Amino acid sequence: MFSSEQFLAFAEHHGVLSLDELHGIGLSDAQVKRRYAAGLLARPYPRVYRLTAGPPLWIGDARALALSVSGVISHRSAAYLWGFDERQPSPIEATIAYRRRTRVSSAVVHRSKQFDLIDDVEIEGVPVTGPARTVLDCAAVYSPKELGFLVDTVIRSKLLDWPDLYDVYIRHAAKGRNGTGKLRQFLDDRYGDRRVPDSRWNRMVGTLLEDSDVGQPVYEHEIYRSDGRFIGRVDLAFPDARLAIELDSVKHHLNHESFVADARRKNALQLAGWTVLTFTWSDYVDQPHQLVSSVRTMLTNLNR
After folding, report:
1. Alpha carbons 296 and 225: distance in angstroms, whole number
2. What does the domain layout of the chain look like in residue ranges?
3. Residue 257 has pLDDT above 50, yes or no
């Protein structure tokens, strides 16, 4: 049998524990085998066990799958766990790293070349894709109408906002992920002419550069002349290479004063030995590969 503490461990994990977790609550391999042979435990997947004292639960099956394949619950199943879609999906879906191999007949297992971009979290002890990646994955399998309902629910939940959705689209599209086109079309149709705050956009571009292995920029970097006089603050910078990156926001550049001041500041930066690259929202959304390539090329040239 099991001790009260061991029963509690099962209860806290929807009746499902991995072999390592069973070891953690004091059961040896031999004890696990005896309880399995006696019918006290079922083994839905290799190295994962379910307590047979109660009926199997969907969330327990999801946890068992994620533990077995060393992955995360994703797509429709993740949307259900997050409460974005009230339809309980069958079969359960999970995502694993592309180079992993697994054979599971009772579930759908996706292999992702961008597994490293998954911000996985736990919901009630179940590893699951984060909200933004869940929306991206669902965009590939939902109809446009279903995607609209999903995004409406996500926005109402306040777990994500429109810039978050653009951010996850760009991060994955920049690495060549298939299926991002449906999310892009949806965002263009729904997001319209709205734009993100400059400070938020700075972080999104910086994340894109980091994801693309260009390097980690410094945000809101202050630059001074050799005599200590302040020149200005740039959106992003690679100080060692003296490369500044400016992100042009239309709303802040529609008046004569800003137009003149920006030109003077850019001249001052260049006279101080800094190289300045300027990008627009269109560069970020429509040509993220080119944005990344331009920064990478300039850094290579400046570091020679």
Report:
1. 26
2. 4-54, 62-191, 198-302
3. no
